[in-house]
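re the bet — no i am not wrong, look at it urself. input seq straight from the record:
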Amino acid sequence: MKSCFGYVRVSSQKQGEGVSLDAQKDAILRFASAHQLTIVRWFEEQQTAAKSGRPLFNAMLKALEAGEANGVVMHRIDRSARNFFDWAKIGELADRGIDVHFATESLDFRSRGGRLTANIQMAVAEDYVRNLRAEIHKGQRGQLERGYYPFSAPIGYRNNGRNALKTIDPVKGPLVRQAFELYASGQFSLHSLREELARRGLAKPSGQPLSKGCLEKFLANPFYAGIIRIRKTGEVFKGAHEPLISTRLFAHVENVRAGKCGKKVTRHNHLFRGLFRCGHCSRSMIPERQKGHVYYRCQYRMCHTNSIREDALGTAIENVLAGAAFPADCLVALTQRFEKWVQQSSSEITAQNHKLQLAKLDDRLEKLEDAAIDQIIDASGFQRRKIKLLAERAALEETARDQARLHDSPAILRRFLERLKNLAEHYHFADTAGKREIVEIAVSNRTVKDKKVLVEPSDWLKATKDAVAVLSCADARSTSRTEHSKELQGQHLMQLCELARSSYAVKLKELFEDQCRESGAGGQDMQRMARGP
């Protein structure tokens, strides 16, 4: 009896767990018994035959070439190969005198007619794979155009079935959002961010930090901002899934990755490192510790000697933040006026404006597609402009959602002003990271000139103070107001509300809440500041 190998194959692990492999083995054993063959070794593979490079298939070919068996028995032709490269290898076996048998195909592979029949069946199998691949791509394209992501969900999202939207993972999603926020802060390099995320719980199953490549991959993925980008083709689509981060945050992370915002990780993490510049040459003030104190100096040789102690900078910051305070009765009056204005105003005009802007963007996208079809612009230029327009559209939709929520939660203004009122006190109790974030958010034009600290409140903080001042002044006026003055007051209230929903206010909220959690039971002062009066 001749010795033969038995080769069985399924395309996936799921198929291998069923009866397919056993059924193939039974058919091969019956064939071997009927033709007086002995199966001396089995090769069981769970991999598609559409592509070449199957490890067990190649190992079997080497063993046959080494003379370890007289031939091979396979279930059918499409179990052996579905591509012409591997099929040519099987033909070479037959040309060398090695027996090739197919248990369910009644053909003689050594005869001309049998070989021709086998080649035809192989062509049919290869065409089936090609057609199946085309149908799969067609279905995936249809899902992408609907905003569905037909591939495996990125980290931070969950798979919910083939035809369902990806949803945010309740555990990993917030950690991925924190990864974007931490990297955007400029306080972390990729290496230090990996360690920090592992400490917070976003790591490999083994507990080791994520690889640098994995971190770079998801920080560059616009899927988290609601835009689907196919890396192989460069195509972009508007996603229908819920964004994990805002387009503003994603754009800021892109700037940090591109080097437009420097990463600031050093061995000595001084409080105001990188935050102040020399008033003479505009270069960064470099901190150094001497005799128990931290001094900030301009290191430019041609510049005048310019240095100052860190505590003087802190005092100047606290003075600026203290200027944002206002009386408690002002807060009550503004809140009452705001709630009344919300009841009287309507969001229909704002919604119509957003619809018009969205329609204009959609029109620009359509014209862009026409330009690509007419070959006015090349493919790379088309994809680059398309992703920019989709990002603008996503940002506009974010703004529309924010303004739509305005009428549902008027208390947001009160909470914003409460936090702002206690900003100086919060700065005083905050840790180093919290103080740095407050300075970056609320203080601008930070310079030192001839030992004098020159700082100003940020534009949003100025706008808040101005709006509060105007509305407070309006309280002292007569109750008889013109329509014009009422309209101006409405504009200032809308401005305050937009500021309350801005990224600055969101960051302030996070700072307060984080500090309250870290302070624990002994942090009554911090908790009181977060709640407000």
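see?? The chain has a mean pLDDT of 79. told u. also The chain has three domains: 2-132, 157-257, 311-533. so pay up
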